[in-house]
Sequence to fold (435 residues):
Amino acid sequence: MRSESATVLHADNPEAGEGPRITVLPNGLRVVSDPMGAVESVALGIWVGVGTRHEAEPVNGVSHLLEHMAFKGTARRSAADIASEIEAVGGHLNAYTSRENTAYYAKVLKEDVALGVDIVADILQNSTFDPEELERERSVILQEIGQAQDSPEDVVFDAFQAIAYPRQPMGRPVLGTPEVIRTLPRADLVRYMTDWYKAPRMVLAAAGRIEHDQLVDLAAEKFGGLPSEMFGEADPARYEGGDVREEDDLEQVHLVMGFEGVAYDDPDFYPLQVLSTLYGGGMSSRLFQEVREKRGLVYSIYSFASALHDGGILGVYAGTGEAEAGEVVRIVCDELSALSVRVGSDEVHRARAQLKASTLMARESTAARCEQVAQQMLIFGRPHSVAEIVERIEAVDELAVMRAAARVAETPLTFAALGPVKKIEPYDAIRARLR
Fold:
């Protein structure tokens, strides 16, 4: 059942025939393998290009609930059978949901690849969504939501996301809301999976001691019946920004400040990654040195540059005391403004080295490489070679970082704060610091 129009890509060393290989099944499912000859295991899984941003408001949280229910029994296996079969060969099975993707993955020894693929295929295509199991899993997710609500950092990040992307799926919580989770009909769960889980939205990826042809044969056998017709598209992400503060009886103020970032395919993607790294990405970063080391204002402060298919965010998180919060906010603004006019070659070099090292170190992990090629297939339609990624990182210079800093600082500020927040200056005053 192998596709006659299969596309093969050797992403690392084309002349030697090394690197990831791709085959597209007739129904549109993409199969990608990244061989690693020095290991005895294989990480594999299905990545589905569907997540929170694809949900209508009345079913917010359905992607995450669906991910949970996939492990609760199929026509062939009970929930206990799923767990015992994978663990009987020393493997493990897991999943996660994000705003753009849902992943179901396993790690097994090389001789158990067929079992791993079979179990992942079974939970994705034959789950029964037993009503009793569904009620139990509602309770589990409500506990998960409760645990997140007991974490101030989780709460402030959800508030930040909601104000950055108001009145749209991108701003809603991945876990959903208790109201929806308690009442979401089983029929809506089944309908969501039927509508969105189509072969062209999926990537079967594997990394480790894997034979590509074996993986393709298993894919054709286990996933060849997936439907190929597509259903709908997610709404575009519309970044707006704004201000949200919640006074709470906490020991610390939890702050998240951010700006509109860039999409994965934007020319400023790598400059923004370098910017985030030198801004607040490590112990040598400007924010860590200025805010924690020199002034002792925080225990935790870091920046992040997250990307989407059609947008992104550059942000900073800090946890600090009530009396120190105002000074922390001022320094975060001042340092970003300074980055648009002055960047040292040494700090750019150091940030590039950090990004290159993390890229190369990830190559040592089967799980990291499996996820990397899967995500790249969903985002770009092909894997990016290590040489290509390193080249793009190396190409970022001081001017590119300053340009990226000026670009994001001109976008609307998103400001979220939780805790004793009364002493923090107004939103407009904070925004004026960036001009």
Q: What stands out?
A: Residues 1-17 have pLDDT under 50 and may be disordered. The first helix runs from residue 62 to 69. Residues 43 and 190 are 28 Å apart (CA to CA). The chain is about 45% helix and 20% strand.
